[in-house]
Amino acid sequence: MNRTQFIKTVGVSSIFIPVIPLFSFSKQQEEPQLEKTLVEKFIQVSHGQFDIVKQLLEEHPTLLNAAHDWRRGDFETGLGAASHVGNKEIAMYLLDKGAQANIFTAALFGKLDIIKAMFDFSPKLIHAKGPHGFTLLHHAEKGGDEALAVKDYLISLGLKETRIPLY
Fold first, then answer.
1. Which of 158, 140, 159, 142 lies closest to 150 in space, CA to CA?
2. Interatomic CA distance for residues 165 and 83, integer angstroms
3. What is the pTM of this model?
4. CA distances from 155 to 26, 62, 88, 118, 135 (A)
């Protein structure tokens, strides 16, 4: 077999072989992406409409860790929404469902040991910005008496701002 015959033989067969898997593994088998409007609605109600949060999460379990992009680096999850307004009932419900906990939620619930461990890991986290630029101090203030030790600790480290512009 010469080079031309080889290329023709390989070229023709290579067209059919890769095409077969494309048809058998079509995108119809994949879970569709969540609609942006649905994610936005879930985030909005996660600030304080517990019954709707439960209903939406039952209908669409993947909303649990979905984040809405408010633009300019301002991403918010349902847990982030509940945390920055101090809605512990919704925040705990989402955590119980397996939401990805973070340092802001730890501040809301007064988890000083977690805050200190995170600062040991990365001291610059004291300047972290949560949704809408809300700081750890803001979240600790929203935590009330339960988070007083975290609030005092953050202030002792020099944190004064409750909100830092995102841009």
1. 140
2. 18
3. 0.80
4. 55, 37, 22, 16, 12
Q: What is the pLDDT of residue 24?
A: 46
Residue 101's φ and ψ, nearest 5 degrees, are: -65, 155
Taking the C-alpha atoms of residue 91 and residue 105, their distance in angstroms, rounded to an integer, is 8
Express each pLDDT in 121-167 by its tens digit.
999 999 999 999 999 999 999 999 999 999 999 999 999 999 998 87
Helix, strand or coil, per DSSP, at residue 31: coil
In the structure encoding, which two tokens stand for residue 154, read together?
A: 């953050």
> What is the C-alpha to C-alpha distance for residues 135 and 152, in angstroms, rounded to an integer?
14
The model's confidence at residue 3, banded by pLDDT at 50, 70 and 90, is low
Q: What are phi and psi of 126, to 5 degrees?
A: -60, -25
Angle at which helix 50-59 crosses helix 88-96, to 10 degrees, equals 20
Domain residue extents for the chain: 33-101, 110-167
